[in-house]
Amino acid sequence: MRRHERVIVAAVVLGLFGLWETLVRLERLDASLAPAPSTILGALVRLLERPEVLQSLAVTAWEVVAAFLIAVPVGLLIGFSLAEIPGLGGLLRPLVNFLFGVPKSIFLPVFILIFGVSIPQKIAFGVFTTIFVVIMGGIAAVQSVPRELVTVSRVYGATRLQIIREIYLPAMAPILLESARLGMVFNITAVLLCEIYGARDGIGYRIAAWGENLQMPQLYAALVIVAAAAVAVNEALRLVEARLGAWRQRS
Amino acid sequence: MTRPLVAIRGVTQRFGVDGAAGVTALEAIDLDIPDGQFVSVVGPSGCGKSTLLSLVAGLRTPSSGAVFCDGEPITAPMPRKVGVIFQEANLLPWLSAIDNVAFPLKLRRVPKAERLEAAARMLELTGLAGFETRLPHQLSGGMKQRVAIARGLVQNPAVLLMDEPFASLDEQTRMVLGDELLRIWSETRKTVLFVTHSLNEAVYLADRVVVLSARPGRVVDDVAVDLPRPRRFAMTSGERFGMLKDRIWQHIKHAERR
Predict the structure, then answer these.
(1) What ipTM was predicted for this assembly?
(2) Which of A121, A250, B5, B17 could form a disulfide linkage to A115, CB 3.0–4.6 angstroms apart?
Protein backbone atom coordinates (compact mmCIF):
# COMPACT_ATOMS: atom_id res chain seq x y z
CA MET A 1 0.00 0.00 0.00
CA ARG A 2 1.25 3.44 -0.83
CA ARG A 3 1.44 6.12 1.77
CA HIS A 4 -1.60 8.17 0.81
CA GLU A 5 -3.64 4.94 0.66
CA ARG A 6 -2.64 4.14 4.23
CA VAL A 7 -3.72 7.62 5.32
CA ILE A 8 -7.10 7.15 3.64
CA VAL A 9 -7.64 3.72 5.23
CA ALA A 10 -6.71 5.07 8.67
CA ALA A 11 -9.05 8.03 8.18
CA VAL A 12 -11.96 5.78 7.19
CA VAL A 13 -11.44 3.54 10.25
CA LEU A 14 -11.16 6.48 12.63
CA GLY A 15 -14.20 8.06 11.00
CA LEU A 16 -16.27 4.91 11.56
CA PHE A 17 -15.29 4.78 15.23
CA GLY A 18 -16.12 8.49 15.54
CA LEU A 19 -19.53 7.89 13.96
CA TRP A 20 -20.14 4.97 16.31
CA GLU A 21 -19.18 7.06 19.35
CA THR A 22 -21.43 9.95 18.20
CA LEU A 23 -24.42 7.70 17.54
CA VAL A 24 -24.16 6.15 21.01
CA ARG A 25 -23.89 9.57 22.66
CA LEU A 26 -26.91 10.77 20.69
CA GLU A 27 -28.65 7.59 21.91
CA ARG A 28 -29.26 6.47 18.33
CA LEU A 29 -27.39 3.24 19.06
CA ASP A 30 -28.31 1.00 22.02
CA ALA A 31 -25.35 1.26 24.41
CA SER A 32 -26.30 -2.04 26.07
CA LEU A 33 -25.69 -3.86 22.75
CA ALA A 34 -23.01 -1.64 21.21
CA PRO A 35 -21.26 0.35 23.93
CA ALA A 36 -19.31 3.40 22.78
CA PRO A 37 -15.67 2.86 21.71
CA SER A 38 -14.54 5.03 24.63
CA THR A 39 -16.39 2.70 27.05
CA ILE A 40 -14.79 -0.37 25.43
CA LEU A 41 -11.36 1.21 25.65
CA GLY A 42 -11.91 1.87 29.37
CA ALA A 43 -13.02 -1.74 29.88
CA LEU A 44 -9.98 -2.97 27.94
CA VAL A 45 -7.57 -1.12 30.23
CA ARG A 46 -9.32 -2.47 33.33
CA LEU A 47 -9.36 -6.03 31.94
CA LEU A 48 -5.61 -5.96 31.40
CA GLU A 49 -5.17 -4.96 35.05
CA ARG A 50 -7.06 -8.02 36.36
CA PRO A 51 -4.73 -10.96 37.12
CA GLU A 52 -7.42 -13.61 36.47
CA VAL A 53 -7.99 -12.21 32.95
CA LEU A 54 -4.26 -12.26 32.23
CA GLN A 55 -4.23 -15.83 33.56
CA SER A 56 -7.03 -16.75 31.11
CA LEU A 57 -5.12 -15.18 28.23
CA ALA A 58 -2.05 -17.20 29.22
CA VAL A 59 -4.09 -20.43 29.30
CA THR A 60 -5.44 -19.78 25.80
CA ALA A 61 -2.02 -18.80 24.48
CA TRP A 62 -0.54 -22.02 25.90
CA GLU A 63 -3.25 -24.15 24.29
CA VAL A 64 -2.78 -22.44 20.93
CA VAL A 65 1.03 -22.70 20.98
CA ALA A 66 1.02 -26.33 22.15
CA ALA A 67 -1.47 -27.37 19.46
CA PHE A 68 0.55 -25.53 16.81
CA LEU A 69 3.85 -27.09 17.90
CA ILE A 70 2.33 -30.56 17.65
CA ALA A 71 0.26 -30.07 14.50
CA VAL A 72 2.95 -28.50 12.29
CA PRO A 73 5.76 -31.10 12.56
CA VAL A 74 3.38 -34.07 12.64
CA GLY A 75 1.31 -32.66 9.77
CA LEU A 76 4.40 -31.99 7.66
CA LEU A 77 5.73 -35.47 8.31
CA ILE A 78 2.41 -36.96 7.17
CA GLY A 79 2.25 -34.59 4.18
CA PHE A 80 5.81 -35.41 3.05
CA SER A 81 5.17 -39.14 3.44
CA LEU A 82 1.97 -38.95 1.39
CA ALA A 83 3.77 -37.00 -1.32
CA GLU A 84 7.02 -38.99 -1.45
CA ILE A 85 6.15 -42.61 -0.66
CA PRO A 86 4.58 -44.15 -3.77
CA GLY A 87 1.44 -46.13 -3.01
CA LEU A 88 0.86 -44.59 0.40
CA GLY A 89 -0.31 -41.34 -1.16
CA GLY A 90 -2.75 -43.03 -3.49
CA LEU A 91 -4.13 -45.05 -0.60
CA LEU A 92 -4.56 -42.34 2.01
CA ARG A 93 -5.00 -39.11 0.09
CA PRO A 94 -8.70 -39.60 -0.67
CA LEU A 95 -9.23 -40.02 3.09
CA VAL A 96 -7.25 -36.86 3.86
CA ASN A 97 -9.11 -34.94 1.16
CA PHE A 98 -12.42 -36.13 2.60
CA LEU A 99 -11.56 -35.17 6.18
CA PHE A 100 -10.14 -31.83 4.96
CA GLY A 101 -13.58 -30.93 3.60
CA VAL A 102 -15.57 -31.97 6.69
CA PRO A 103 -16.28 -29.18 9.24
CA LYS A 104 -14.19 -30.09 12.27
CA SER A 105 -16.57 -28.48 14.78
CA ILE A 106 -18.98 -31.44 14.53
CA PHE A 107 -16.32 -33.61 16.20
CA LEU A 108 -16.08 -31.36 19.27
CA PRO A 109 -18.50 -33.46 21.42
CA VAL A 110 -16.38 -36.53 20.65
CA PHE A 111 -13.28 -34.76 21.96
CA ILE A 112 -15.11 -33.84 25.17
CA LEU A 113 -16.14 -37.49 25.59
CA ILE A 114 -12.56 -38.65 25.15
CA PHE A 115 -10.59 -35.96 27.00
CA GLY A 116 -13.24 -34.36 29.24
CA VAL A 117 -13.51 -30.58 29.54
CA SER A 118 -9.78 -29.98 29.93
CA ILE A 119 -6.74 -28.25 28.52
CA PRO A 120 -5.57 -31.43 26.70
CA GLN A 121 -8.99 -31.51 25.02
CA LYS A 122 -8.45 -27.96 23.65
CA ILE A 123 -4.96 -28.87 22.46
CA ALA A 124 -6.14 -32.11 20.87
CA PHE A 125 -8.98 -30.39 19.06
CA GLY A 126 -6.64 -27.61 17.93
CA VAL A 127 -4.24 -30.22 16.51
CA PHE A 128 -7.10 -32.08 14.82
CA THR A 129 -8.35 -28.91 13.12
CA THR A 130 -4.92 -27.57 12.12
CA ILE A 131 -3.24 -30.73 10.95
CA PHE A 132 -5.23 -31.17 7.73
CA VAL A 133 -4.24 -27.73 6.48
CA VAL A 134 -0.61 -28.53 7.27
CA ILE A 135 -0.81 -31.95 5.58
CA MET A 136 -2.24 -30.41 2.41
CA GLY A 137 0.44 -27.70 2.57
CA GLY A 138 3.17 -30.35 2.97
CA ILE A 139 1.93 -32.25 -0.09
CA ALA A 140 1.67 -29.06 -2.16
CA ALA A 141 5.15 -28.00 -1.03
CA VAL A 142 6.76 -31.27 -2.15
CA GLN A 143 4.93 -31.09 -5.47
CA SER A 144 6.13 -27.52 -5.98
CA VAL A 145 9.79 -28.62 -6.03
CA PRO A 146 10.92 -28.35 -9.67
CA ARG A 147 12.09 -31.81 -10.79
CA GLU A 148 14.57 -30.28 -13.23
CA LEU A 149 16.41 -28.57 -10.38
CA VAL A 150 16.82 -31.98 -8.76
CA THR A 151 18.25 -33.28 -12.06
CA VAL A 152 20.63 -30.32 -12.27
CA SER A 153 21.91 -30.98 -8.76
CA ARG A 154 22.42 -34.66 -9.53
CA VAL A 155 24.43 -33.75 -12.63
CA TYR A 156 26.62 -31.57 -10.42
CA GLY A 157 27.18 -34.39 -7.98
CA ALA A 158 24.72 -33.57 -5.17
CA THR A 159 24.11 -36.26 -2.56
CA ARG A 160 20.57 -37.06 -1.35
CA LEU A 161 21.11 -34.96 1.73
CA GLN A 162 22.42 -32.05 -0.34
CA ILE A 163 19.40 -32.26 -2.64
CA ILE A 164 17.12 -32.01 0.39
CA ARG A 165 19.06 -29.12 1.92
CA GLU A 166 19.88 -27.14 -1.21
CA ILE A 167 16.78 -27.75 -3.36
CA TYR A 168 13.85 -29.15 -1.39
CA LEU A 169 14.00 -26.89 1.66
CA PRO A 170 14.42 -23.52 -0.07
CA ALA A 171 11.90 -24.44 -2.77
CA MET A 172 9.31 -25.54 -0.22
CA ALA A 173 9.87 -22.83 2.41
CA PRO A 174 7.33 -20.27 1.15
CA ILE A 175 4.50 -22.80 0.80
CA LEU A 176 5.33 -24.39 4.17
CA LEU A 177 5.16 -21.03 5.92
CA GLU A 178 1.97 -20.16 4.15
CA SER A 179 0.32 -23.39 5.28
CA ALA A 180 1.61 -22.86 8.82
CA ARG A 181 0.06 -19.40 8.79
CA LEU A 182 -3.28 -20.69 7.51
CA GLY A 183 -3.09 -23.52 10.03
CA MET A 184 -2.61 -20.96 12.80
CA VAL A 185 -5.85 -19.22 11.81
CA PHE A 186 -7.72 -22.55 12.01
CA ASN A 187 -5.92 -23.38 15.26
CA ILE A 188 -6.92 -20.17 17.07
CA THR A 189 -10.50 -20.57 15.88
CA ALA A 190 -10.64 -24.17 17.10
CA VAL A 191 -9.22 -23.44 20.56
CA LEU A 192 -11.56 -20.48 21.09
CA LEU A 193 -14.53 -22.55 19.92
CA CYS A 194 -13.62 -25.23 22.49
CA GLU A 195 -13.37 -22.67 25.25
CA ILE A 196 -16.67 -21.02 24.38
CA TYR A 197 -18.37 -24.42 24.14
CA GLY A 198 -17.18 -25.62 27.52
CA ALA A 199 -14.15 -24.76 29.66
CA ARG A 200 -12.99 -23.81 33.13
CA ASP A 201 -10.56 -21.11 32.03
CA GLY A 202 -9.25 -19.35 28.94
CA ILE A 203 -10.26 -16.14 27.21
CA GLY A 204 -12.95 -17.94 25.21
CA TYR A 205 -14.52 -19.14 28.44
CA ARG A 206 -14.60 -15.54 29.74
CA ILE A 207 -16.04 -14.22 26.47
CA ALA A 208 -18.86 -16.74 26.73
CA ALA A 209 -19.54 -15.78 30.38
CA TRP A 210 -19.51 -12.03 29.66
CA GLY A 211 -21.87 -12.59 26.76
CA GLU A 212 -24.34 -14.55 28.87
CA ASN A 213 -24.27 -11.83 31.56
CA LEU A 214 -24.68 -9.07 28.96
CA GLN A 215 -21.38 -7.48 30.03
CA MET A 216 -20.91 -5.91 26.63
CA PRO A 217 -17.93 -3.59 27.31
CA GLN A 218 -15.89 -6.55 28.65
CA LEU A 219 -17.04 -8.76 25.77
CA TYR A 220 -15.98 -6.24 23.13
CA ALA A 221 -12.72 -5.48 24.93
CA ALA A 222 -11.90 -9.22 24.91
CA LEU A 223 -12.71 -9.37 21.20
CA VAL A 224 -10.26 -6.52 20.59
CA ILE A 225 -7.52 -8.36 22.51
CA VAL A 226 -8.07 -11.64 20.66
CA ALA A 227 -8.28 -9.94 17.27
CA ALA A 228 -5.10 -7.94 17.91
CA ALA A 229 -3.19 -11.06 19.00
CA ALA A 230 -4.41 -13.11 16.02
CA VAL A 231 -3.56 -10.36 13.52
CA ALA A 232 -0.13 -9.88 15.09
CA VAL A 233 0.69 -13.60 14.78
CA ASN A 234 -0.61 -13.70 11.20
CA GLU A 235 1.35 -10.65 10.12
CA ALA A 236 4.55 -11.88 11.77
CA LEU A 237 4.31 -15.19 9.90
CA ARG A 238 3.52 -13.36 6.68
CA LEU A 239 6.58 -11.15 7.09
CA VAL A 240 8.86 -14.21 7.37
CA GLU A 241 7.05 -15.76 4.41
CA ALA A 242 7.58 -12.67 2.24
CA ARG A 243 11.24 -12.54 3.14
CA LEU A 244 11.92 -16.21 2.39
CA GLY A 245 9.80 -16.12 -0.76
CA ALA A 246 11.19 -12.94 -2.35
CA TRP A 247 12.64 -14.99 -5.21
CA ARG A 248 9.13 -16.08 -6.20
CA GLN A 249 8.31 -12.58 -7.45
CA ARG A 250 8.16 -12.26 -11.20
CA SER A 251 9.34 -8.98 -12.55
CA MET B 1 45.65 -41.89 -33.06
CA THR B 2 45.32 -40.57 -29.52
CA ARG B 3 42.72 -42.07 -27.23
CA PRO B 4 39.30 -40.37 -27.62
CA LEU B 5 38.16 -38.26 -24.66
CA VAL B 6 34.60 -39.54 -24.91
CA ALA B 7 33.98 -43.04 -26.24
CA ILE B 8 30.50 -44.44 -26.79
CA ARG B 9 30.74 -48.19 -27.42
CA GLY B 10 27.83 -50.29 -28.68
CA VAL B 11 25.30 -48.35 -26.67
CA THR B 12 21.68 -49.50 -26.80
CA GLN B 13 19.00 -47.95 -24.61
CA ARG B 14 15.57 -49.49 -24.15
CA PHE B 15 12.70 -48.11 -22.13
CA GLY B 16 9.70 -49.99 -20.89
CA VAL B 17 8.50 -52.56 -18.41
CA ASP B 18 11.31 -55.07 -17.87
CA GLY B 19 12.46 -54.52 -21.43
CA ALA B 20 9.42 -56.38 -22.74
CA ALA B 21 7.41 -54.57 -25.40
CA GLY B 22 9.53 -51.55 -24.57
CA VAL B 23 10.76 -48.76 -26.77
CA THR B 24 14.29 -48.88 -28.14
CA ALA B 25 15.51 -45.30 -28.06
CA LEU B 26 19.09 -45.88 -29.18
CA GLU B 27 20.60 -48.84 -30.96
CA ALA B 28 24.25 -49.84 -31.31
CA ILE B 29 25.72 -46.36 -31.11
CA ASP B 30 29.49 -46.14 -31.58
CA LEU B 31 31.14 -42.74 -31.35
CA ASP B 32 34.66 -41.59 -30.60
CA ILE B 33 35.09 -37.94 -29.72
CA PRO B 34 38.64 -36.62 -29.55
CA ASP B 35 39.70 -34.01 -27.02
CA GLY B 36 38.72 -30.47 -27.95
CA GLN B 37 36.27 -31.37 -30.72
CA PHE B 38 32.94 -29.58 -31.12
CA VAL B 39 30.36 -32.18 -32.12
CA SER B 40 26.73 -31.43 -33.00
CA VAL B 41 24.14 -34.18 -32.75
CA VAL B 42 21.05 -33.84 -34.94
CA GLY B 43 18.21 -36.15 -35.90
CA PRO B 44 14.46 -36.30 -36.35
CA SER B 45 12.21 -35.61 -33.36
CA GLY B 46 12.26 -38.35 -30.75
CA CYS B 47 15.40 -40.02 -32.11
CA GLY B 48 17.04 -40.24 -28.70
CA LYS B 49 19.46 -37.30 -28.96
CA SER B 50 18.69 -36.19 -25.44
CA THR B 51 18.85 -39.78 -24.20
CA LEU B 52 22.35 -40.00 -25.63
CA LEU B 53 23.38 -36.90 -23.68
CA SER B 54 21.85 -38.17 -20.45
CA LEU B 55 23.95 -41.34 -20.85
CA VAL B 56 27.15 -39.31 -21.19
CA ALA B 57 25.99 -37.15 -18.26
CA GLY B 58 25.74 -40.32 -16.16
CA LEU B 59 22.06 -39.69 -15.38
CA ARG B 60 21.23 -43.20 -16.64
CA THR B 61 23.17 -46.30 -17.59
CA PRO B 62 22.66 -47.90 -21.03
CA SER B 63 20.77 -51.18 -21.42
CA SER B 64 23.87 -52.52 -23.12
CA GLY B 65 27.24 -51.11 -24.14
CA ALA B 66 29.15 -48.47 -22.23
CA VAL B 67 30.22 -44.86 -22.27
CA PHE B 68 33.75 -43.85 -21.32
CA CYS B 69 35.18 -40.49 -20.39
CA ASP B 70 38.95 -40.28 -20.41
CA GLY B 71 39.08 -44.08 -20.35
CA GLU B 72 36.84 -44.36 -17.31
CA PRO B 73 33.36 -45.94 -17.63
CA ILE B 74 30.55 -43.51 -16.80
CA THR B 75 28.06 -45.02 -14.35
CA ALA B 76 27.10 -41.92 -12.36
CA PRO B 77 27.40 -38.15 -12.91
CA MET B 78 31.04 -37.01 -13.05
CA PRO B 79 30.66 -33.34 -12.16
CA ARG B 80 34.37 -32.57 -12.34
CA LYS B 81 34.78 -33.97 -15.83
CA VAL B 82 31.43 -33.26 -17.45
CA GLY B 83 29.43 -30.02 -17.35
CA VAL B 84 25.81 -30.09 -18.51
CA ILE B 85 23.67 -27.29 -19.93
CA PHE B 86 19.96 -27.93 -20.49
CA GLN B 87 17.35 -26.43 -22.75
CA GLU B 88 16.07 -24.35 -19.87
CA ALA B 89 18.66 -22.54 -17.77
CA ASN B 90 17.31 -24.33 -14.66
CA LEU B 91 18.87 -21.85 -12.26
CA LEU B 92 17.98 -22.05 -8.58
CA PRO B 93 15.52 -19.14 -8.38
CA TRP B 94 16.45 -18.24 -4.78
CA LEU B 95 20.16 -17.82 -5.54
CA SER B 96 21.85 -14.83 -7.17
CA ALA B 97 23.67 -15.26 -10.49
CA ILE B 98 27.05 -15.68 -8.83
CA ASP B 99 25.74 -18.15 -6.23
CA ASN B 100 24.14 -20.17 -9.02
CA VAL B 101 27.47 -20.36 -10.85
CA ALA B 102 29.22 -21.31 -7.61
CA PHE B 103 26.61 -23.97 -6.77
CA PRO B 104 28.54 -26.99 -8.16
CA LEU B 105 31.56 -25.91 -6.09
CA LYS B 106 29.37 -25.53 -3.00
CA LEU B 107 28.24 -29.14 -3.44
CA ARG B 108 31.92 -30.09 -3.39
CA ARG B 109 32.44 -27.99 -0.23
CA VAL B 110 34.95 -25.62 -1.81
CA PRO B 111 35.55 -22.70 0.62
CA LYS B 112 33.26 -19.76 0.01
CA ALA B 113 35.85 -17.15 -0.99
CA GLU B 114 37.43 -19.55 -3.45
CA ARG B 115 34.18 -20.59 -5.09
CA LEU B 116 32.92 -17.00 -5.42
CA GLU B 117 36.18 -16.01 -7.05
CA ALA B 118 35.90 -18.85 -9.57
CA ALA B 119 32.24 -17.99 -10.22
CA ALA B 120 33.07 -14.31 -10.80
CA ARG B 121 35.69 -15.32 -13.36
CA MET B 122 33.16 -17.49 -15.19
CA LEU B 123 30.55 -14.71 -15.21
CA GLU B 124 33.16 -12.45 -16.74
CA LEU B 125 33.98 -15.09 -19.37
CA THR B 126 30.31 -15.36 -20.31
CA GLY B 127 29.88 -11.59 -20.50
CA LEU B 128 27.89 -11.14 -17.29
CA ALA B 129 30.31 -9.08 -15.20
CA GLY B 130 28.20 -6.62 -13.22
CA PHE B 131 25.18 -8.93 -12.92
CA GLU B 132 26.56 -11.06 -10.06
CA THR B 133 23.91 -10.19 -7.49
CA ARG B 134 20.86 -10.41 -9.77
CA LEU B 135 18.27 -13.06 -9.05
CA PRO B 136 17.25 -15.28 -12.00
CA HIS B 137 13.85 -13.58 -12.38
CA GLN B 138 15.69 -10.30 -12.92
CA LEU B 139 17.61 -11.68 -15.92
CA SER B 140 16.54 -12.10 -19.55
CA GLY B 141 16.30 -15.56 -21.14
CA GLY B 142 19.65 -15.15 -22.88
CA MET B 143 21.36 -13.96 -19.70
CA LYS B 144 19.97 -16.90 -17.73
CA GLN B 145 21.42 -19.27 -20.31
CA ARG B 146 24.78 -17.47 -20.00
CA VAL B 147 24.64 -18.07 -16.24
CA ALA B 148 23.91 -21.75 -16.95
CA ILE B 149 26.93 -21.92 -19.26
CA ALA B 150 29.10 -20.26 -16.61
CA ARG B 151 27.84 -22.84 -14.10
CA GLY B 152 28.69 -25.63 -16.54
CA LEU B 153 32.22 -24.33 -16.91
CA VAL B 154 32.98 -23.42 -13.30
CA GLN B 155 34.60 -26.75 -12.40
CA ASN B 156 36.70 -26.59 -15.55
CA PRO B 157 35.34 -29.90 -16.91
CA ALA B 158 36.91 -31.44 -20.00
CA VAL B 159 33.51 -32.09 -21.58
CA LEU B 160 30.54 -29.80 -22.03
CA LEU B 161 27.18 -31.41 -22.82
CA MET B 162 24.56 -29.08 -24.24
CA ASP B 163 20.99 -30.26 -24.74
CA GLU B 164 19.32 -27.79 -27.12
CA PRO B 165 20.62 -24.95 -24.96
CA PHE B 166 19.30 -22.17 -27.18
CA ALA B 167 15.99 -23.76 -28.23
CA SER B 168 13.82 -21.58 -26.02
CA LEU B 169 15.49 -18.32 -27.04
CA ASP B 170 14.53 -15.99 -29.86
CA GLU B 171 16.45 -16.13 -33.14
CA GLN B 172 18.67 -13.09 -32.52
CA THR B 173 19.64 -14.07 -29.00
CA ARG B 174 20.37 -17.53 -30.37
CA MET B 175 22.80 -16.23 -32.96
CA VAL B 176 24.56 -13.95 -30.48
CA LEU B 177 24.88 -16.77 -27.95
CA GLY B 178 26.13 -19.14 -30.66
CA ASP B 179 29.00 -16.78 -31.45
CA GLU B 180 29.61 -16.30 -27.72
CA LEU B 181 29.78 -20.06 -27.28
CA LEU B 182 32.36 -20.32 -30.08
CA ARG B 183 34.44 -17.56 -28.46
CA ILE B 184 34.30 -19.31 -25.08
CA TRP B 185 35.09 -22.63 -26.73
CA SER B 186 38.12 -21.17 -28.52
CA GLU B 187 39.35 -19.75 -25.20
CA THR B 188 38.78 -22.91 -23.15
CA ARG B 189 39.10 -25.71 -25.76
CA LYS B 190 36.45 -27.92 -24.20
CA THR B 191 35.11 -31.01 -25.89
CA VAL B 192 31.52 -30.11 -26.71
CA LEU B 193 28.60 -32.42 -27.43
CA PHE B 194 25.84 -30.18 -28.69
CA VAL B 195 22.32 -31.50 -29.36
CA THR B 196 20.15 -29.28 -31.53
CA HIS B 197 17.12 -29.20 -33.79
CA SER B 198 18.58 -26.44 -35.91
CA LEU B 199 20.68 -27.59 -38.86
CA ASN B 200 22.06 -24.06 -39.27
CA GLU B 201 23.25 -24.07 -35.67
CA ALA B 202 24.62 -27.62 -35.96
CA VAL B 203 26.78 -26.83 -39.00
CA TYR B 204 27.72 -23.30 -38.00
CA LEU B 205 29.10 -24.26 -34.59
CA ALA B 206 30.60 -27.71 -35.01
CA ASP B 207 33.69 -29.48 -36.34
CA ARG B 208 31.53 -32.50 -36.97
CA VAL B 209 27.83 -33.28 -37.18
CA VAL B 210 26.56 -36.70 -36.12
CA VAL B 211 23.19 -37.54 -37.67
CA LEU B 212 20.87 -39.99 -35.92
CA SER B 213 18.01 -41.87 -37.57
CA ALA B 214 14.42 -41.97 -36.36
CA ARG B 215 13.73 -44.29 -33.44
CA PRO B 216 15.55 -46.50 -32.74
CA GLY B 217 18.32 -43.94 -33.07
CA ARG B 218 21.33 -45.12 -35.06
CA VAL B 219 24.20 -43.14 -36.46
CA VAL B 220 23.31 -42.70 -40.14
CA ASP B 221 25.92 -40.12 -41.03
CA ASP B 222 28.99 -38.48 -39.57
CA VAL B 223 29.73 -35.24 -41.39
CA ALA B 224 33.04 -33.41 -41.04
CA VAL B 225 32.44 -29.66 -41.21
CA ASP B 226 35.44 -28.37 -43.16
CA LEU B 227 34.56 -24.69 -42.90
CA PRO B 228 37.45 -22.53 -41.67
CA ARG B 229 37.50 -21.03 -38.19
CA PRO B 230 36.69 -18.54 -36.87
CA ARG B 231 33.22 -18.97 -38.26
CA ARG B 232 31.56 -15.91 -39.76
CA PHE B 233 27.89 -15.24 -40.27
CA ALA B 234 28.51 -14.75 -44.01
CA MET B 235 29.51 -18.42 -44.29
CA THR B 236 25.92 -19.46 -43.61
CA SER B 237 24.96 -18.22 -47.07
CA GLY B 238 27.99 -19.81 -48.74
CA GLU B 239 27.93 -22.79 -51.09
CA ARG B 240 29.87 -25.17 -48.84
CA PHE B 241 27.58 -24.45 -45.89
CA GLY B 242 24.54 -25.15 -48.07
CA MET B 243 25.97 -28.45 -49.33
CA LEU B 244 26.69 -29.68 -45.80
CA LYS B 245 23.25 -28.67 -44.58
CA ASP B 246 21.61 -30.32 -47.58
CA ARG B 247 23.45 -33.58 -46.98
CA ILE B 248 22.18 -33.68 -43.39
CA TRP B 249 18.68 -32.63 -44.38
CA GLN B 250 18.37 -35.55 -46.82
CA HIS B 251 18.68 -37.99 -43.89
CA ILE B 252 16.25 -36.14 -41.66
CA LYS B 253 13.68 -35.41 -44.36
CA HIS B 254 13.59 -39.10 -45.16
CA ALA B 255 12.99 -39.98 -41.52
CA GLU B 256 10.44 -37.28 -40.71
CA ARG B 257 8.32 -38.29 -43.72
CA ARG B 258 7.80 -41.84 -42.46
Answers:
(1) 0.87
(2) A121
